[in-house]
Design a protein that fits this description.
The structure holds 2 protein chains of 2 kinds. Chain A is α+β, with helices and mostly antiparallel strands. Chain A has helices at about 1-10, 15-45, 90-95, 145-190, 195-225, 260-275, 290-320, 325-335, 340-365, 380-405, 410-415, 420-450, 455, 485-495, 500-535, and strands at about 50-55, 60-70, 85-90, 100-105, 105-110, 115-120, 125-135, 140, 230-235, 240-245, 250-255, 280, 285. Classes of the chains: A alpha+beta, B alpha/beta. The structure holds adenosine-5'-triphosphate and magnesium ion. The site of adenosine-5'-triphosphate (ATP) has 12 residues of chain B, from strand 2 and helix 2.
């Protein structure tokens, strides 16, 4: 017995088994996590049938089942526990709460709600009910039922077109005028008193022109608004009549009438909308496009900053600095920097980048705007810089490792051909460590995309009024605040007034963040493999 | 089958060499030595590695350094192109003249010296770049930018190392995909692409199989028409086969230096005889 055990010990089989079990456990955990997120996220877009639930205590509810749990009763034994259903009944403006709990014992009948529609609205969340009639400017144009729905969907097309036009007008044209007016105001404010009558005259003339233009645009806006005359009248589950202006509706559909293909199409459309739309209803509805944009842009700026910084530092440490205690100490410090809690970097970013550097920039270049800060407050540049600082150890370490593994013979060969040390570094060593640099960058990007804490205090906001890139000169606005998927998850999931409505959003956004990190990584890995292929012997 | 052919090739080698030796090109036979080493001593820190070495290395000949491990062969070789400058705390005394010019004082700078004195290493070390880029590297460093000129240099160098036919269709492939022997020949091509006068080779064949070694040896005999070759080798048959003159180093001293045939058949010094008959080292 002991003999056999000794054999197992000696051959090390035990360790191989242990290693296998450890690996399997890790894989199961990761797969389970991803699966949980995926399933929860996928059901968010799937158009499930509306249910009509009749209650024994009287009344009916139309809604979607979203959960089931045991009613908490401390005394009763577990076997006799009663359950309740969580139902999303929508209609927040009518009923006050869009999620309710119904005791299973109270349910008389559950059936598919024939003819019930889901109305996605710009405000107040979804509405569930039956169509009664379609009106336009006070007069009825269609009744309820299938033909009414057809008319309604037709009317919706024009309504959406008008809405898009209004959106365009307010966001781009009026936004541009406002931007110019603000510049004009600042220019006036920065004029020295009594300095230059000509300039003042020119500015006030420009101002008048802008004001006239503004009036024009608002008039056009009013014309468009006057065209929004359609409205639809619905019946709720308890037969109340609710009228909804079409201007407030995004889409109307009957989930019960969708076939399998229709459902898949719907699912895909919703998923695409989710990544391309702006958020609504304090982020609990709509899409997350600004957050995706902000995350990607932050990671890109961070990459641009961290790569040269880390690479130069690593080259100095490994190729140029005299290898002594000092360099060893610096190396240890850099390695430990990677373990500093991220919020510490955030605090540093606020103190140094925002208050000190940003404040100084404001005083030197944006004095006319003060006391409103320009760079002296959180923004995408400072957030990216903070993240670059946070991830620079990763790049340094992997570049240094790469440098250590570049065969000394290469450097000698280059020197022996008459190249200087710099030429050797630039033309031979740098290309040879490129894959290691990219490895460092991959790790840095993964870290930066997932980090939230330091961003919360250096420039991420719940809702950014505009993207950091737009059509207004200078097109890239590094001082602007931005949105971020990681913070979005936190905000929607834990800061939202309507937690139940936001829950699917949390999973979807999480899935998106994971996908985004994977995509960013895949891009970098692809690049690295291409480089490796070029450099390597085996062509792997 | 292969081995037999190999042996034949090896046997034939010295005979070919004798032909070379007996028929030198009279036009390229100048009287002045290419490299003059004048009372050179070398120290790594306080540790002496070379002691009072003087020798004249003839033009367009192969000169070999032999000796037991650690005797200073590489150190002496690396003095010739000042590669030892890279070693911290190392110091050289005496003078070395190449083409009559002192390498420390009279040749422009170290880069100019290394253009004139190329080097091939024991461990073949092509850059992780394409074959073309490897050969074009030196000329580019020394200021040749024109793509056509570079192509011409690359072709010429690869032809000189008998590599052209093997690689002409894959100049843009990674150099690391070549075989060991091809890589070493590529390193030689890379060294001669800057058109040096002297070619230093530190045990260039010690990591190669006999067939690849034979090719490199053939190549050296070919190259000595245009270059002065100095080679360090542990393989005494190799020295006997290809070198015109051989120097025997022991513990940092040049024990004996003379025509290869004489050194191997009638050594003047007892220590040389002990070494070549395998009594030590
Ligand atoms: N960079 C260095 N620093 C200090 N000592 C060195 C250095 N390089 C070589 N030496 C010493 O100088 C002496 C000569 O070394 P060298 O490399 O020239 O020998 P070698 O004849 O080429 O030996 P081998 O045949 O093994 O290559 C040895 O004692 C070695 O330990
Ligand atoms: Mg050596």
């Amino acid at each position: 017995m002991t003999h056999m055990f000794k054999g197992v010990w000696k051959r090390g089989d035990l360790f191989i088994w242990l290693a296998g079990v450890g690996l399997a456990l890790s894989l199961i955990m990761v797969a389970g996590l991803l699966l949980a997120i995926f399933i929860n996220a996928a059901t968010f877009f799937w158009p499930a049938d509306l249910m009509r639930i009749s209650l024994k205590s009287g009344g009916t509810v139309i809604g979607l089942k979203t959960g089931r749990e045991a009613i908490p009763q401390p005394e009763t034994p577990e076997a006799s526990a009663r359950y309740r259903l969580q139902i999303k009944q929508g209609n927040r403006d009518v009923t006050g709460a869009d999620f309710i709990w119904i005791d299973e014992a109270d349910i008389a009948r559950v059936e598919k709600a024939e003819g019930a529609l889901i109305v996605e609205r710009r405000e107040w969340g979804d509405f569930y009910g039956l169509l009664k009639e379609v009106r336009e400017g006070g007069g009825q144009v269609a009744g309820g039922g299938a033909s009414g729905l057809l008319t309604l969907q037709e009317k919706m097309e024009t309504a959406l077109a008008i809405h898009a036009e209004i959106d365009d007008l307010t966001k781009s044209d009026i936004g541009r005028v406002n931007y110019k007016m603000e510049k004009n105001r600042l220019a006036m404010a920065s004029l020295k008193p009594g300095a230059d009558d000509q300039a003042l005259a020119r500015l006030s003339k420009e101002r008048k022109e802008l004001e006239r233009h503004y009036q024009e645009l608002t008039a056009r806006l009013q014309v468009l608004r006057d065209k929004q005359v359609g409205e639809a009248v619905f019946l709720t589950a308890d037969e109340r009549e609710i009228s909804i202006p079409l201007a407030k509706v995004i889409q109307v559909y009957e989930p019960g009438a969708l076939g399998a293909v229709g459902r898949i199409g719907f699912f895909l459309r919703k998923a695409i909308d989710f990544v391309t739309d702006d958020p609504r209803e304090s982020n609990t509805e709509g899409g997350v496009f600004p957050a995706i944009f902000g995350t990607v842009m932050m990671v890109m700026i961070m990459s641009l900053l961290v790569t040269p910084l880390g690479v130069v530092a690593a080259f100095y440490l490994r190729e140029y600095a005299h290898q002594g205690t000092m360099v060893s100490a610096v190396r240890i410090a850099v390695n430990n920097l990677a373990g500093v809690p991220s919020i510490v970097f955030g605090v540093f970013g606020v103190g140094f980048f925002i208050y000190f550097i940003g404040g100084t920039i404001d005083q030197l270049f944006y004095a006319e705007k003060l006391p409103a800060p320009t760079f002296g407050t959180g923004g995408i540049l400072w957030a990216s810089l903070t993240m670059a600082l946070l991830t620079v150890p990763v790049v340094i370490v992997s570049t240094e490792e790469g440098l250590a593994s570049v065969a000394g013979g290469l450097r000698e060969a280059s020197i022996a051909l008459g190249a200087t040390k710099f030429e050797t570094t630039w033309r031979v060593v740098l290309p040879a460590v490129m894959p290691s640099i990219l490895t460092g960058l991959i790790l840095a990007m993964a870290r930066a995309a997932g980090e939230v804490a330091p961003l919360m205090i250096t420039g991420v906001v719940k809702l950014a009024p505009s993207l950091p890139v737009d059509g207004l000169f200078p097109f890239v606005h590094l001082e602007r605040k931005f949105m971020h998927l990681g913070f979005h998850i936190y905000d929607v999931g834990f800061q939202s007034p309507n937690v139940d409505a936001a829950r699917p959003m949390v999973f979807t956004t999480t899935l998106l963040l994971v996908v985004l990190v994977v995509l960013l990584n895949l891009a970098a890995i692809w690049l690295r493999n291409r480089l490796r292929k070029k450099l390597s012997a085996s062509g792997v | 089958m292969n081995e037999i052919r190999l042996k034949n090739e090896m046997k034939n080698m010295p005979r070919e060499m004798n032909v070379e030796k007996t028929a030198p090109d009279p036009a390229r036979e100048p009287s002045t030595p290419m490299v003059e080493i004048d009372r050179v001593a070398f120290f790594y820190g306080n540790q002496p590695a070379l002691k009072n070495i003087s020798m004249s290395i003839p033009r367009n000949k192969v000169t070999a350094f032999i000796g037991p491990s650690g005797c200073g062969k590489s150190t002496l070789l690396r003095c010739l192109n000042r590669m030892n400058d890279l070693v911290e705390g190392a110091r050289m005394e005496g003078a070395i003249r190449i083409g009559g010019k002192d390498i420390h004082r009279e040749i422009g700078d170290v880069s100019a010296l290394r253009k004139q004195v190329g080097m091939v290493f024991q461990k073949f070390n092509p850059f992780p770049k394409t074959i073309f880029e490897n050969v074009a590297y030196g000329p580019t460093i020394h200021g040749t930018k024109d793509r056509n000129a570079l192509s011409a240099i690359v072709e010429k160098s690869l032809r000189a190392t008998a590599l052209w036919d093997e690689v002409k269709d894959r100049l843009n492939d990674s150099a690391l995909r070549l075989s060991g022997g091809q890589q070493q020949r590529l390193c030689i091509a890379r060294a001669i692409a800057v058109e040096p006068e002297v070619l230093l080779m530190d045990e260039p064949c010690s990591a190669l199989d006999p067939l690849a070694t034979a090719r490199i040896e053939e190549l050296m005999v070919e190259l000595k028409r245009n270059y002065t070759i100095v080679i360090v080798t542990h393989n005494m048959q190799q020295a006997a086969r290809i070198a015109d003159k051989t120097g025997f180093l022991l513990l940092g001293e040049l024990v004996e230096f003379g025509p290869t045939e004489k050194l191997f058949t009638r050594p003047a010094d007892q220590r040389t005889e002990d070494y070549i008959t395998g009594r030590f080292g």
